Amino acid sequence: MPGPLVVNDSVVIPDTELVWRFSRSSGPGGQGVNTTDSRVELTFDVAATTALPPVLKARALDRLGAATITVAASEYRSQLRNREAAAHRLAQRLREAIAPPPKRRRPTKPSRGAVERRITTKKHRSDLKRLRRNP
Predict the structure, then answer these.
(1) What spatial distance separates the first Cα and last Cα of the chain, rounded to whole Å?
(2) Residue 59's beta-bridge partner residues?
(3) CB 44 within 8 A of CB 69
(4) Nearest-5° angle of CA 111, CA 115, CA 121?
(5) d(CA 124, CA 118)
(6) pLDDT per residue over 21-60, tens digit each?
(7) pTM here?
(8) pLDDT, block means (10 residues), the chain with 135 residues
(9) CA 94, CA 90: separation in Å to the nearest integer?
(10) What does the alpha-carbon distance between residue 20 and residue 109 come to, in Å, rounded to a whole number?
């Protein structure tokens, strides 16, 4: 599964900047569990990358709080499936880290008609409760 990691349309991480580590996975797996290195750790150094423009790199470092991202995958019995899962998770985390900030909320106030409807409803409810009381 070598090759670049596509984060979005404009960001592609070259394979040379990704560090893959393999180890034995814990949990059930039958006879092959003790012999196959199916657990995958994928590490990416955000601070040293050349794939991100300076603005996106600063945004990612600010949001992630760390210079390197390490993603582990061991839910599948096959190393290939775990590699795909780790690559997908890393791409997702990077997508979230470099996403533009959400638009600021523009404060609004209720319209005069909405305020009048609310007060009319409150008065109506008050009158109903007042009529239920004993004189």
Answers:
(1) 83
(2) none
(3) yes
(4) 145
(5) 10
(6) 888 877 665 666 566 778 899 999 988 888 889 998 999 9
(7) 0.71
(8) 80 88 73 72 90 90 88 87 92 91 93 97 96 87
(9) 6
(10) 53
The amino acid sitting at 63 is R
Total number of residues shown for the chain: 135
The 8-class DSSP code of residue 6 comes to: E
Encoded amino acid at 71, one letter: V
Q: In this structure, are residues 11 and 31 in contact, taking their beta carbons and an 8 Å threshold?
A: no
User: Which tokens is 99 given?
Assistant: 């996403």
Distance of CA 29 to the CA centre of its chain: 30
Please name the residue that has the structure tokens 């945004």.
59
Contact (Cβ atoms closer than 8 angstroms) between residue 49 and residue 36: no
CA dihedral 24, 30, 31, 37 (to 10 degrees): -20
The string of DSSP letters for 25-85 reads PPS--GGGGGT---EEEEEEETTT-SSS-HHHHHHHHHHH-SSEEEEEE-SSSSHHHHHHH
